[in-house]
Write a structure and sequence with these properties.
The structure holds two protein chains of two kinds. Helix content of chain A is 0%, strand content 60%. By secondary structure, chain A is mainly beta. The chains are: A mainly beta, B mainly beta. At the A-B interface, β4, β5, β9 and β10 of A face β5 and β10 of B.
């Protein structure tokens, strides 16, 4: 059974700091991995999608990496801003089950 | 704007009542799914559909029914609401490009069962 874990559950950093969010998964048979952002009381916004054959994807100040063999992904946020404060969720699309499985998220607070 | 539309945004039900959460997408996506989000539990898959007329169960299907008569719509039915179904419900749709999928989520329905 695919399990997705995100560490830490919460993170507070000062503005301007570079930071890394971690995601690990137990079954390497995945089609892709996707990082989402969720603001309080809102839906999910897709940030980055990494195919299983890719190592990383970049969008602006965000960089996501994927190491399928070790079951790990990281989301790197450069020069963090207060507007980056949100919950970040990773999800893997499992080849075996055809389902998208989510981690529990990391809640980020960036202090001015 | 193209996307996934969920209605209603908020709903309060009494135990034992039934209701349907609506989900519609205008992106011609084949794949649609329903999730519930509970504190400390993340998002859990309830039901999903890979196309019109085809549905399957996710991780937590009990107490919910779905049908997919058109590509655009994927309603979720609560047959007899229970307090344990108090949650935020999200509908998502996605496309297939080979084996790649990108998911678009609706803004959610916040359901309280009293």
């Amino acid at each position: 059974k695919q399990e997705v874990t995100q560490i830490p559950a919460a993170l507070s950093v000062p503005e301007g700091e570079n930071l890394v969010l971690n995601c690990s998964f137990t079954d390497s048979a995945i089609y892709n991995l996707q990082w989402f952002r969720q603001d309080p009381g809102k839906g999910l916004t897709s940030l980055l999608l990494i195919q299983s054959s890719q190592r990383e994807q970049t969008s602006g100040r965000l960089n996501a990496s994927l190491d399928k063999s070790s079951g790990r992904s990281t989301l790197y946020i450069a020069a963090s801003q207060p507007g980056d404060s949100a919950t970040y969720l990773c999800a893997v699309y499992s080849s075996n089950t055809g389902k998208l499985i989510f981690g529990q998220g990391t809640t980020l607070q960036v202090k001015p | 704007n193209a996307g996934v539309t969920q209605t209603p945004k908020f709903q309060v039900l009494k135990t034992g009542q039934s209701m349907t959460l609506q989900c519609a997408q205008d992106m011609n996506h084949e794949y649609m799914s329903w999730y519930r989000q509970d504190p400390g539990m993340g998002l859990r898959l309830i039901h999903y559909s890979v196309g019109a007329g085809i549905t399957d169960q996710g991780e937590v299907p009990n107490g919910y029914n779905v049908s997919r008569s058109t590509t655009e719509d994927f309603p979720l039915r609560l047959l007899s609401a229970a307090p344990s179904q108090t949650s935020v419900y999200f509908c998502a749709s996605s496309y297939f490009t080979g084996a790649v999928q990108g998911y678009t989520f609706g803004s959610g329905t916040r359901l309280t069962v009293v």
